[in-house]
Amino acid sequence: MxxxxxxxxxxxxxxxxxxxxxxxxxLSFAHDGLEAWQILQSEPDVFDGVILDRMMPRMDGIDxxxxxxxxxxxxxxxxxxxxxxxxxxxxxxGLAAGAWYYLAKPYSTKALxxxxxxxxxxxxxxxxxxxxxxxxxxxxxxxxxATYTFRDLDDVSMLASxxxxxxxxxxxxxxxxxxxxxxxxxxxxxxxxxAEKGRLIEAGDWQAEVERRLADxxxxxxxxxxxxxxxxxxxxxxxxxxxxxxxWGSYLDLDTARAFDSHGRGIAMARHxxxxxxxxxxxxxxxxxxxxxxxxxxxxxxxxx
Length: 305
Prior knowledge:
Elements: E1 3-7, H1 11-21, E2 26-30, H2 33-42, E3 49-53, H3 61-70, E4 79-83, H4 88-97, E5 101-104, H5 109-133, H6 137-140, E6 145-150, H7 153-163, H8 170-189, H9 194-203, H10 206-215, E7 224-230, E8 235-240, H11 266-274, E9 277-281, E10 286-291
Parallel strand pairs: 1-2, 1-3, 3-4, 4-5
Antiparallel strand pairs: 6-7, 7-8, 8-10, 9-10
Helix pairs in contact: 2-3, 5-7, 5-8, 7-8, 8-11
């Protein structure tokens, strides 16, 4: 059961969300952005996610979101922006402020629960990955070059968490590596495309379908690789799958047309948040990323390429 802060200046909207989510999650409510920020400041370690209205008195949702993303205590708390403002410019503003999860009013209960599940799963995965790899940091510091194979979701979790320990901002890098490696497995090797993944997530069948395809003899021998190299001034990772590639160009930034989907933001998040550079090679079955080491005490994260 997640602890969520619901922020909306319309009481009826708070009631609707409470009806949709109250049986499965612990909910707190704020009636405008300023009240929400005060609650978050008083309880910085309590909330697993925020459902945030965009247009409110005293402090609007964009201002709250910018404060959250600028504060180290809240950077990994997923924020779902809900709004009737769904023009491409308004969506782009929300995405730039950090609203990787977006709901356009009016929305269905199914859309709300699907987006929320994706947001909470993303956060749990990032935290689990960081914990899994922390014990390997010392060994990895002595590694100059290594190549690893991976095949399934467990392999992705383990390798992403371990390799990210070579970086001072390990949690962010582990998220980025995980997203790229996951794409190599599910899309590259198993052939689950964007539209099909959306249908599977909506039906709650995504993981079962991945496991079914992994067990298919026709795909049983397909593996992907990740090559780690420690260069004098940066670290590099080269991820290769056995698929036919994909039209990767449209996924480097979060297209506003996909802003309301339950998935499709992973590559853009990896590019903008985790790495110094990200480059797909050829048809898209290979991707190379680099990380410039961050000195101890500096902020994590990387500049946009």
